[in-house]
Amino acid sequence: MDIDQLAEKIIEGGTRNAAVSGAGMSVESGVAPFRGKGGLWEKMDPMKVAHIDAFREDPVPYWEMRGPFIKSLETIDPNPGHAALARLQREGRLGTIITQNIDGLHEAAGSTDVIEFHGSVRTLRCMDCSRKIPSRSACLDDRPPRCACGGVLRPDVVFFGEAIPPEALVRSQQIASDCPVMLVVGTSAVVQPAASIPVIARRAGALVVEINPERTPLTDQVVDVFLEGWSGEVLPALAEAVRRASC
Ligand code: APR
Is the N-terminal amide bond of 193 cis, ω within 30° of 0? Predict the structure, then answer.
């Protein structure tokens, strides 16, 4: 199936189409991925820094890793891939984006219907009094940042060892079981339950399109159309093909 035939399918699916995005979506915005070239987990063990038990024992390694990243989000911009998905949503060719990313770049690009499957670093929560504060108002240079009550602050993300918020999980599974086309963008598809969302879609009869410079465990199992390349290049080309096919 070529990109023009794919564009026709996307037009047919309309706002029932869905997307799943991963860290690869934000690489062209300058955000390091977790796995593969330049990946965070190539340099440190996620179970030592990003597991809830490790964080409870000592939150400093997490904050040493993620404090600078959270501070940098004020200066990181969405890339043409985020903009292309937001355009497809605006033009009624894409509905929900289920993102594993915690960087908020889909919303920053103007996307509306976004499920933050692994939460977001935009807000922090106190481990003692549970108060929530915007990340930008915390002292992110402190190791760890603390609440006014003295409690340790944690980001509103899903750590390893924690469950996906039930409403995010159920809604994502429902969307996957009803979408005509599912775009799977920039994910290594090795973390569950996120990696099962495209499988649910395929089993329900969706056309699954993967956009990634590398093949993943999904590519040979559930992917119908593999568009090899960078999301910041492939997605704008796909959105343009949809525009052409709409004329
Ligand atoms: N465009 C598209 N894909 C890209 C690009 C790019 N420019 N650059 C890299 N990729 C691909 C890589 O080939 C890889 O398949 O993006 C994927 C990134 O994989 P991961 O870093 O594992 O990111 P992700 O799949 O989102 O990780 C899932 O793991 O550690 C947890 O919570 C974390 O949400 C994260 C989850």
Answer: yes
